[in-house]
Backbone:
């Protein structure tokens, strides 16, 4: 379908711009079906290093110590990083993605665990080596000592009296007011309209049910991937399949105390996202590895890592009570909804021990 050249003196008929009911040619179709499209894992550079992440096998544990000395001495290993290599982010720091603020302090803890791991799959250390096999060997050489703690895996467990506190710094927002003291409940808010009790009195029938939904992942075909090249003399480059390259740039810059102009993000073709490819997971770690090694670094999640360490949709528990007259007119609806935020409040960056 050809689009006519714009001329302000010519009235274009609506028919010439019709798309519904037609079969327009996708501009990226030929590249994708012929294999020429460049996806996240397809980026390659001279001197490229392969990065891997050491991930927690515990759902909830305190990190006693991390010893990377054996990994650093392996031939072919060019850089090793832990949380200590990332700048500290002050509590309360936030970043606005345009759809609400996200907690930058918790995002930094998700990118690389500091004092505790909060889900199986939580990143603990990163390595960059001359090939993937040596990188995997380096992960096995890192020694981590844990104090395993009780886990909380559902909203009711997290809200129960005496439940293990997952985030010691989290304070509950109770109907707009901050409640001092640690809590597993991130936020409690209500929407009210009318007299609910009077509505139930007017009902001929009242039905009350409970429902639960499981955590579910977006299930995109392409895993998270990134290739980065740190440059001290110009913009450092990040190539990744993302739904928001400006978000990746802003998050990475804030997490690493860099200026926006010091980073350029190039969005590759994306093999599915569905809202799941906006939060950074690998990019800040890869950039620190590249800075330490002085060479570009590629990191690609396995399918197992995608499911264990990237953000799904929340599981939920719901109690619904509905009152209605015999003619079907609703008189009252009352709903209590409990959503599991995963390891951190806000948009669920990762599954794990539950804040709600």
Residues:
């Amino acid at each position: 379908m050809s689009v006519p050249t714009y001329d302000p003196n010519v009235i274009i008929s609506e028919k010439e711009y019709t798309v519904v009911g037609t079969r327009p040619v996708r501009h990226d179709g030929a590249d994708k079906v012929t294999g020429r499209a460049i996806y996240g894992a397809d980026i390659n550079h001279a001197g490229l290093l392969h990065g891997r992440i050491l991930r927690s096998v515990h759902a909830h544990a305190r990190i006693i110590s991390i010893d990377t000395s054996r990994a650093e001495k392996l031939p072919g290993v060019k850089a090793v990083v832990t949380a200590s290599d990332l700048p500290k982010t002050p509590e309360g720091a936030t970043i606005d993605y345009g759809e609400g603020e996200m907690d930058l302090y918790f995002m930094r803890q998700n990118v690389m665990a500091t004092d505790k791991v909060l889900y199986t799959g939580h990143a603990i250390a990163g390595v960059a080596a001359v090939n993937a096999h040596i990188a995997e060997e380096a992960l096995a050489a890192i020694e981590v000592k844990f104090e395993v703690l009780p886990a909380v895996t559902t909203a009711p467990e997290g809200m129960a009296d005496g439940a293990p506190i997952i985030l010691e710094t989290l304070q509950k927002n109770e109907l707009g007011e901050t409640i001092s003291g640690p809590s597993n409940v991130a936020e409690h808010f209500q929407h009210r309209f009318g007299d609910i009790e009077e509505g139930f009195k007017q009902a001929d029938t009242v039905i009350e049910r409970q429902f639960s939904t499981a955590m579910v992942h977006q299930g995109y075909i392409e895993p998270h991937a990134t290739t980065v090249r740190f440059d001290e003399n110009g913009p450092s480059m990040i190539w990744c399949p993302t739904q928001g390259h400006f978000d990746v740039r802003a998050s990475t810059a804030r997490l690493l105390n860099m200026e926006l102009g010091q980073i350029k993000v190039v969005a590759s073709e994306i093999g599915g996202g569905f809202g799941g490819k906006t939060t950074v997971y690998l990019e800040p770690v890869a950039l620190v590895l590249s800075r330490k090694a002085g060479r570009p670094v590629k990191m690609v999640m396995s399918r197992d890592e995608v499911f264990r360490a990237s953000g799904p949709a929340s599981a939920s528990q719901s109690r619904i009570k509905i009152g209605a007259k015999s003619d079907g007119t609703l008189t009252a609806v009352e709903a209590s909804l409990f959503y599991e935020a995963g390891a951190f409040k806000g948009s669920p960056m990762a599954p794990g021990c539950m804040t709600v």
Summary: The CA atoms of residues 173 and 187 lie 5 Å apart. The two ends are 50 Å apart (CA to CA).
